[in-house]
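Hello K.,

You asked for the raw outputs rather than the summary table, so here they are, unedited. I folded two proteins back to back in the same session to keep the settings identical. This is the first:
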Amino acid sequence: MRILVVEDDPDLGPFLVRALEEASHAADRARTLEEARGRLKERPYDLVSLDVTLPDGSGLDLLREIRAAGHSFPVLVLTSRGEVRQKVEGLDRGADDYLLKPFALDEYLSRVRALLRRGGARPDPILRLGGITCDEAAHRVTVSGREVALTPKEFSLLAMFLRSPGVAISRSQAVNSVWKWSFDGYSNVVDVHVSALRRKLRGSGVRFRAVPGVGYLVEEETAATAGGGDE
């Protein structure tokens, strides 16, 4: 199961990620609301562990956005404030469970297990755009029915773009999500992999378009762009 930990505490955040990974989950961390929104656009999650107090606002605002977008995955809200009003507000906005800080790790993991058993409707693992079909569960990509062999990093990069067609994704976002290291501004690893994807997905009716100063986006080709090649 993949879990997003939205927690700015420099000690607690990495600790929870490590504990979840040791419990055989895949875990990503976001330190701010903005970073969490980016993570949620990049990939589907089975559960979100959400701190209420974040540097750029309230986690309850993100919770409201999650439910307004139609996401039904469980959300475990963490807070150091124990007032009944805060609990009621969180539950009213769509929280599935509430845990007050400080808490025992065993209790946290128990709450996570319980929420994952209850579950929610996971987004469709089949991503489609133009002639491309990307099956995230089977780790398989086809172009108009023809299977295309991609490396693990190429597959992860393609899936990230297909989850947000028409949305510009920065090189920094791509490096953080796919390679799990910080982008230093000098690496061309994203450009190299995009070039490989362009070659392997030729004839799919989909193009990677360069966005100057940002990165790339994927979009379906039109009659006006089909003959112009990728930028």
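The second followed immediately with the same parameters:
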Amino acid sequence: MAGARRKFRVFVAALVVVAAVVGVAGWWLLFRDDAPPEADIDTAGETLDEAADDEAAGGGDSGNLQGEWTVDTTVGSFDDFSGTWAGYRFDEELGGVGANTAAGRTPDVTGTMTVEGDEVTAVDVDVDMTTLQSDNGTRDNALQTRGLESGRFPTATFSLTSPIALPAGVVAGEQASAEAEGELTVHGVTNEVTVDLDVELAGGAAVVVGQAPVSLTAFDIDAPTGFSVLSIEDEGTFEFQIFFTRA
């Protein structure tokens, strides 16, 4: 009997160890830092070149930049983030895991850009916040009613407030950088922001990659912390990669 009890205790201990290992592994798989890399103009430019080649094959206008351009969600793919998207990036602290980067993106972006003379005179972009996707469905569902409260505030917008001079070389297809002053509306609150941009034009298409620092408190957003999310940094980033084609 004593031997049987010892075997039983050993068996139970083994089950506990296995359960603990499985639990830790599941927790890691659920909350590991799996945020996508930030957008960069070099990678976006590769997708742009492919789109420009297709445009040229179809007889697209590659010389005249004047007029209105529209957001084009058919360039690239959201599956690998090679296409149009917009979203957020914030650092957080997870219970039992530690530091983590939360990044959510959506391909549901619409809008226009207007070029007059040697300036971009208008940019108006709308983002559907209800379709933001991160690496964690629990986080995405929570943001419908907490934090961003996308159920109540389904749309974020950006509107240019000062013209942007076309950077030197960009007309010739070179990569260029610029700053955009505009109004960003998130969670029903509008703030002035300065967006750092990287731009490339090719044929009848353009790509704009950018980011701007944002503060949760500035947009009246309460960080959605809880049992698993211990804290979220107040300062984060609004980031995007947007392809435009001639209207």
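DSSP finds three helices and twelve strands in the chain.

Happy to rerun anything if the numbers look odd on your end.

Regards,
P.
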